[in-house]
Amino acid sequence: MHPTGLTGRLARISARHPWTVIATWIVVLAIALTTMVTLGNRFTMNEEFRVDLESRVANDLIAERLNGGAEDPAQERVIVSSTDMTVEDPAFEAVVANVAAELAAHDEVARVETYYDAGQDALVSFDRHRTVIVTTLAGDPVDAIQDAQPVLKTIHDLQTPAPGFDVVTLGAASITDTVNTTAEAGMAKGESIGIVVALIVMAVVFGTLVAAGIPIVLTIVTLLVTTSVAMATSHILGLNAAVIQMIDVIHLARDYLPIVIGFVLIISFLLLLVAFRSIVVPIKAIVMNLLSVFASYGLLVLIFQKGFGARLLGFQQVAQIEAFVLLFLFCVLFGLSMDYHVFLFSRIKEQFDLTGDNELAVTRGLQSTGRLITSAALIMVGVFGGFAAADLANLQQFGFGLAAAVFLDATIVRMILVPASMTLLGNRNWYLPAWLSWLPEIHIDGAPPRVAPESLDRDTDGPALEPALAD
User: What is the 3-state secondary structure (H, E, C) of 378-393?
Assistant: First the structure.
C-alpha cells in the first residue's frame, strides 16, 4: 500500500531520489555555514520587548530633554588597586597612566578620565589604595557594548600591570560579556550531555549506532540552518536592543501569561476536537498537560525559591523565579506534552476504530507507544538536565523545570492517570455532541478497517492490531 497524506508522499519522493535530497541539503547546509561565518550575528542578552514600556519611554525622555537627544554612552569603570601604595605615590600614578594609555589607544574608546586628570576624589577609595579609570566607549551604546571585545581583552591582559597592583573592570560591556560567556558555556554543556544521552538511548532502541546517529546528525543540520536564518534576519531587520527596567519585564510577562495560556488552550482544544471527534479527549489532554506544567512550577518554587534541596542539586537559591521562565516553560512544556498525548491518543483511537473495545484500545495503545514515548522522554530529560547543570540561575530553572515536567508527564501522567481515566470513562471518551457531527472525519494515520472485538486475542499482538503508519 502506497503512503498517503503529505508526509507520506514526501517520504516516498525522498526514498525514490535519495541522492538528490542529500545533495540539496548539503547545499542548504553550505549556505547556512557561509551565512554564519560571513554575517556573524547581532544577538544580545539585552531585549527590547516593546517600545512603549514606561521605563523605555522615561529613558527616551531623559535622553531627549537632558542629553540633547543622545543616550548615555556605554562606560567601563576600570579599577586599579594596590595593596601597599596610595594614589599619592608616583609609582601608583605611573601605573594608572600606563593603563589609561593602553585603553585610549583603542578606536572603540572615545574618552579616558583618571583621578590625575580631573582631581575628583569621587574616583578614589576612602583608603586611597584604589582609583577608577572612567573609560567611555565610542558610538551608539548598544553597538559599543557589542564591539568592546578588544578593550576587554586589553583590560584582561593588564590584570597585574605591576607587582602589587590589580586591575578589574565593571560596566555594561564587561557584564554583558560575562553573562554571554557563562550562558554559552552552559548551553554547550547542555548540548554535549544531550547528544551523549540521545545517542545512548537511540542506540538501545534501534540496536545500531548508524540508525541512532542519523537523527542526531539531522538535528544538528536543522539547528545550523535555523541559526543561520536567525542571523541573516537579525542583519536584515537590524535587531538590537536597549536595556530596559526589569520591573517592566515582570509586568509584561505577568500581563501576557494569561493571554498566552488562554490562546494555547483554545487552539489545542479545537485541533484535538477536530482530530479525534470528541470533546472528552481534548479536555482530558489539556487537564493532564496542565498538571505536568503546574507540578513543574511547584517544584521550581520549592527548590529555587524555598531552597529545598537546592544545595544538594547544585542549584542557586533565588528570591524569585526569572520573569520569562514561567512563560517559556508553559509554551515549551505544553507543546511537548501535547505531542506525547496526540501520539498516544491517536494509537488508542486507531485501536478503538478497529475493535470498538475501549479497554482493549487503551491497553494496545499504551503498549504500542510505551517504548517510543519513554525513549523520547529519556532523551529530553537528559538534554534539559544538561542545561540545569549550567551556572546561570535562569538556565538552571529552565532546564530543571523542563526535565521535571517531561519526567512527570511520561511516567505518572501517561502510565497512571491517562489509562485510569480512559478506562473509567469507557466509550464516553469518544463522545461528540450531535450538534458537532458536521465536523470532518480526520484519521491521523489513515482509516483502518474495523474488525469485531471477539475475533481478537487480548493477550497477543495480532497483525490486525499493529499501528497503521500510513503517513
Answer: HHHHHHHHHHHCCCCH
Q: For residues 285-299, give the mean pLDDT.
A: 88
Q: Which three cell numbers stand for residue 459?
A: 493477550
pLDDT band of residue 105 (cuts 50, 70, 90) is very high
Distance from C-alpha of 444 to C-alpha of 87, rounded to nearest angstrom = 77
Sheet holding 165-171, edge to edge: 109-113, 130-137, 75-82, 165-171
CA distance 290 to 145: 41
Parallel, antiparallel or unpaired: strands 109-113 and 165-171: unpaired
Taking the C-alpha atoms of residue 259 and residue 265, their distance in angstroms, rounded to an integer, is 10
Q: Are 81 and 130 contacting, i.e. CB atoms less than 8 angstroms apart?
A: yes
Print the SS3 string covering the chain.
Answer: CCCCHHHHHHHHHHHHCHHHHHHHHHHHHHHHHHHHHHHCCCCCCCCCCCCCCHHHHHHHHHHHHHCCCCCCCCEEEEEEEECCCCCCCHHHHHHHHHHHHHHHCCCCEEEEECHHHHCCHHHECCCCCEEEEEEEECCCHHHHHHCCHHHHHHHHHCCCCCCCEEEEEEEHHHHHHHHHHHHHHHHHHHHHHHHHHHHHHHHHHHCCHHHHHHHHHHHHHHHHHHHHHHHHHHHHHCCCCCCCCHHHHHHHHHHHHHHHHHHHHHHHHHHHHHHHCCCHHHHHHHHHHHHHHHHHHHHHHHHHHCCCCHHHHCCCCCCCCCHHHHHHHHHHHHHHHHHHHHHHHHHHHHHHHHHCCHHHHHHHHHHHHHHHHHHHHHHHHHHHHHHHCCCCHHHHHHHHHHHHHHHHHHHHHHHHHHHHHHHHHHHHHHCCCHHHCCCCCCCECECCCCCCHHHCCCCCCCHHHCCCCCC
Contact 382, 201 (CB under 8 A): yes
pLDDT in tens, 217-271: 888 888 888 878 777 776 665 554 444 445 556 666 677 778 888 888 898 898 8
CA distance 471 to 187: 35
> And the C-alpha cell for 93?
600614578
In this structure, are residues 278 and 345 in contact, taking their beta carbons and an 8 Å threshold? no
> How far, in Å, CA of 386 to CA of 346, rounded?
31
Quote the CA–CA distance of 237 and 256 in Å, as a whole number. 25
Question: How many CB atoms sit inside 10 A of residue 119's CB?
Answer: 9
**What is the per-residue pLDDT across 323-346, written as a single tens digit (0 to 9) for each?**
778 888 888 888 888 887 888 888
pTM, two decimals, is: 0.69
Instruction: State residue 458 phi and psi, 5-degree precision.
Output: -70, -15
